[in-house]
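Whether sequence alone determines local backbone shape is best considered at the level of individual chains. When preparing material for the folding task, we compiled for one chain both its residues and its backbone structure tokens. No coordinates are needed to read the tokens, only the vocabulary itself. For completeness, the protein is quoted in full, as a sequence line and a line of structure tokens:
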Amino acid sequence: MKKRLNQLSSFVFACVLSGGAVASQAAYPAKALQLVVPFPAGGSVDIVSRAYAQQLSSLMGQSVVVENKAGANGVIGAQYVANAKPDGYTLLMASSGTFTITPALQKTSFDPVKSFTYIGLVTNYTNVLLVNKDSHYQSVGEIIEQAKKKPGEVTFGSSGVGGSNHLGGELLAYRAGVEMLHIPYTGNAPAMTDLIGGRIDFMFDITTTARNHVAGGKVRPLAITSAEPNPVFPSVPTIAEAGFPTAEFNGWFGVMGPRGIPDDIAQKLSAANKKIIESPEFQKQVLDWGYSIPKTDPSAMVERVESDLALVRDVVKNAGIKVE
């Protein structure tokens, strides 16, 4: 009799535990979520993240706390999330620079695909090829023709070795089969200063920051690096329309968490992500900032990271890029 009572007690206890686990899982989220931004406050990733967090909070019925963990081009914040408990309460607003450029240039402490649970892309951003307002170049084709005539004499600037605008220039040279001279600067601002001053021939810049220089009449846009027209420069041809379709090179922001988040929680987060980027309010903010809306499902995000990483590694190898 005592043995049967013990067995019954064990069964009841197990049911209570099981029921508690199911209830706990069904109640997600039961507390505030943390959205890690691996860059400083006030930057483009941070601005998008805070708008996203407001929307996510409304959908989930819990606070979403944005926390900046900057350093090493996003690696510090990414590693923090990779090491977090995979319960759906710690998320990362990742960027293409951290996940497709940095791993192509140096060894990282995380695998850009295997160390994370992908939730979905949030925005796309694109670069624009700029020349000085008085430049004699009127098209990308004219730049390439000059580079063919005088290899190594056409110059392009960047924010530094391994930056997205450096890789954009190297990709164009690679695909066009020409040699151009890269001039690295210690940031985007000094590169732009020299472009305005006519000391370099061209540079790539993201549309969100290039718009002010173009509006001020200091530089001219010749092409954008996306496949579709950009809302900031709707009349500027795409790089494909300029004659170089294989030189498309775009960035993205997207949400992910540590590897191992339960499927039902990951699906709930992905569904919320889809609702956010399809909401008129968020889309207006994103489009006003010069970004575009991407495909949302996690599989599309994984495919994007893998294809972008392969492209960057190819460019890095061809150009012999090394980061000291």
